[in-house]
Amino acid sequence: MPPRDNGHEEPVIRDNRKIDPETGQVKDQPPAEQPQEAPGDMLEPQDGELAAQLAERTADLQRLQAEYTNYRRRVERDRVAVREQAVAGALTELLPVLDDIGRAREHGELTGGFAKVAESLESVLTKLGLSAYGQKGDPFDPTVHEALMHSYSTEVTEPTAIEVLQPGYRMGDRVLRPARVAVAEPEDAPAASDDDEEN
């Protein structure tokens, strides 16, 4: 029994010579020997896999970009909030100085170089967003006013600040100190009008 070669009972001989021994001419390689479909078959699954990986990486990058954008917005918002908090704290500490300047102005003591310094200070504080509020005759608003005195009056039709004892200050929408006021409410006239209707 002849020896087996590559699992076949009889040896298989392949002529791999590039020159034909009978004619001496160079042999043409038959197209069947060059498998054309195999690379395509191997590349198609790879292309699909590459496309899936590309889509996954693109989604990851978009997600990271969105997270980074949100992070930057959050940091910027926090930075603005911290700055506002710091400015509000500094302005609050300066309010007693402004009260002293206001009292000196009322008594005519704000003159000369001191007046210039006071005006410069008030100008700088205004640029930082500080504004005073609270005028005599303003309707009383408990969210921005603090009532230190209370009375009744026929001259008002609603709770009204009839005197400003200490001005209020705000920075933007934030109230740093409420205006301290004396409040007058309208006198109770409904009872008297009911008596008139009965007569």
From TrEMBL:
PANTHER family: GRPE PROTEIN, GRPE PROTEIN HOMOLOG, MITOCHONDRIAL. Belongs to the GrpE family. Homodimer. Transmembrane segments: none annotated. Residues 54-81 form a coiled coil. The keyword Protease does not apply. Keywords: Chaperone, Coiled coil, Cytoplasm, Stress response. This is Protein GrpE. Residues 29-39 have a biased composition (Low complexity). Gene3D superfamilies: 3.90.20.20, Head domain of nucleotide exchange factor GrpE. Participates actively in the response to hyperosmotic and heat shock by preventing the aggregation of stress-denatured proteins, in association with DnaK and GrpE. It is the nucleotide exchange factor for DnaK and may function as a thermosensor. Unfolded proteins bind initially to DnaJ; upon interaction with the DnaJ-bound protein, DnaK hydrolyzes its bound ATP, resulting in the formation of a stable complex. GrpE releases ADP from DnaK; ATP binding to DnaK triggers the release of the substrate protein, thus completing the reaction cycle.
